[in-house]
Amino acid sequence: MELTLLGTGAPLGLPRPDCPCAVCARSRGPRARSATALLVDGALLLDLTPGAALAAARSGHSLVGVRQVLLTHPHDGPAVEVPAGLPTAGRVPDGQELTLISGHRVRAVPMDSPGTGYEVTSADGERLLYLPPGGAPAGLAGGRLDPYDMVVADVTGRPDGLARLRAAGAVGPATEVIAVHLDHDVPTGAELDRRLAAAGVRAVPDGTTLYVGDYHEVPEVPRRTLVTGGARSGKSVEAERRLETFPEVLYVATGGTREGDPEWAERVGLHRERRPGSWRTAETCELVPLLVEDGPALLIDCLSLWLTDAMDRVGAWDDATWADGGQAALRERTAELVAAVRATRRTVVAVTNEVGSGVVPATAAGRRFRDELGRLNASFAEECEEVVLVVAGQALVLRG
Q: How far apart are CA 77 and CA 12, in angstroms?
């Protein structure tokens, strides 16, 4: 099944008309994206957008052979001029199926928001799923589905939709996932590619032709990632973003609760609001047992609070206790954690702090914590496929 993406942008396109934002300013030339529309085997057009005929011609195709035009969502963007000879565009009621003269079977997939998704099966059996902007499939909870060969969807706007498809088996290890409906609320260029690759997804330029069912190397998702940065740098957001397309995540909060501390309660509340409702939370510093056992992806936030607890346990804040076995006990505990990271089979994203780039702490205990966290970060990073430094909300890949 040949699929040509005539456009890959949001309904208003990218850049948006008259928008002064930084993303729109950078979305020029090859980075510009018209509203998403798909041409399947030259016979089926999914979404009719402005300039579809010209877009097809630029990609070396024609709309002359189109026998069916289907819409996935209300088109509130610029007026669409329907090319002469093109069939009237329509939408298929949820659950109904069409068989086209070209041999394609098209089934309307119910969405959890206004719009319709389409499952397209070719005469040779290749299966494509195309979803509208802002939409995710509804009613996937019951039973496992066969994986699609390709999914084309609004991954940046609805990462939870991809998580649902993975949980239901509709997206498997070999499923190629293409991000479309790209808008100015996500970065462009290399940063977009990096974010999508962390979810096993990719974006392509307008006019790209893909072949559904052909082998294409799916972006490799790093199994162990360390995200570091300073206070309020955006490191926790970066870590959470990396797992938002996973069907199940265990969020490991190492900070616990602090009675009578409203600032801490506010921080915890903000983190909980950002996390998907399907994620589970464990408040613990016992990381080794979690890393040893099998289970869903782990998001550990954060190693600096884990180290604080570890230093509490061995009495490392007291100079005499530190010299009389405390240092050895702490090093043994951190070595046990690093060994568990090395051996784990789970997907792990861990957050930590960079504390060695500022003012030298005034106390021996403060300097001890700074030094031990630096050692822990270096050892933990050595066992990770990817290490990311976050500065002012911008992720800099140090490894991977």
A: 5
pLDDT digits (tens, 9 = 90+) for 178-223: 999 999 999 999 999 999 999 999 999 999 999 998 877 777 788 9
Rounded CA-CA distance 129/247 in Å is 18
Q: Which of 181, 184, 216, 271 is catalytic?
A: 271
Task: For the chain, list residues with pLDDT below 70.
Answer: 75-82, 141-144, 256-274
Q: Is 139 left (phi over 0), alpha (psi -120 to 50) or beta?
A: left
Handedness of CA 373, 375, 380, 386 (dihedral sign): positive
Measure Cα distances from 4 to 37, 88, 307 in Å: 9, 20, 52
DSSP code for 31? G
Exposure letters 129-145 (e unless 16+ CB within 10 A, then b): bbbbbbbbbeebeeeeb
The Cα 226–Cα 382 span in angstroms is 10
What is the spatial distance between Cα 76 and Cα 312, in angstroms, rounded to a whole number? 59
| Dihedral pair phi/psi, residue 118, rounded to 5° | -130, 130
User: Cis omega (within 30 of 0) on the bond before 285?
Assistant: no
C-beta atoms surrounding 272 within 10 Å: 13
In this structure, what token pair is assigned to residue 122? 């070719």
pLDDT at 260: 59
In the three-class reduction of DSSP (H, G, I as helix; E, B as strand; rest coil), residue 184 is classed as: coil
CB of 308 within 8 A of CB of 321? no
Average pLDDT, rounded, for the chain? 90
**Neighbour-count burial of 170, counting CB atoms closer than 10 A to its CB (0-12 exposed, 13-18 middle, 19+ buried):** buried
Annotated catalytic, 181? no
d(CA 316, CA 323): 9
In the DSSP assignment, the letter for residue 82 is: P
49 close to 75: Cβ distance less than 8 angstroms: yes
Q: What is the pTM of this model?
A: 0.89
